[in-house]
Amino acid sequence: MRYWLFKSEPSVWGWDDQVAKGDIGEEWDGVRNYQARNFMREMSVGDLGFFYHSQKEKAVVGIVEVCAAAHPDSTTDDPRWDCVDIRAVRPFASPVTLEMIKSEESLADMALVRSSRLSVQPVTDTEWSRVCAMGKTDP
Which pLDDT does position 67 carry in this prediction? Predict the structure, then answer.
């Protein structure tokens, strides 16, 4: 299993929207960055990810699971763009802000810190465990 981070503007698609989709989940569509698309192509069903609210909140707020492997993005006819489907697993007991992550020395190399604009990012096993602990949430 691998770990990921999915960023979304909560005013467009937030944690509550993701939870409302239930076990069926939702396409993580509209990604138009080659690196982020390639990360989605690497994902497997069962991989877990952080659901991250960008913009004002800038915090990890929940855990999601990849429930469908990479497939053509339904929001475009352009065959270059793929997406995965994700479903909500559980909310974080305490949101973990970007400020908290940046202040944690062990997370200095996390993609969220180094490539903050990328909407889909890999997360290492160590980063996963540390952020879950910071958020008082079972990994």
Answer: 98
Burial label for 72, CB within 10 Å (0-12, 13-18, 19+), is: middle
Q: What is the largest CA-CA distance in the chain?
A: 43
Instruction: Tell me the pairing of strands 3-8 and 59-72.
Output: unpaired
Show the tokens assigned to 122: 């890999």
Residue 85: φ, ψ to 5°: -105, 140
3-state secondary structure the chain: CCEEEEEECCCCCCHHHHHHCHHHCEECCCCCCHHHHHHHHHCCCCCEEEEEECCCCCEEEEEEEEEEEEEECCCCCCCCCEEEEEEEEEEEEEEEEHHHHHHCHHHCCCHHHHCCCCCEEEECHHHHHHHHHHCCCCC
Q: Is the pTM higher than 0.90?
A: yes
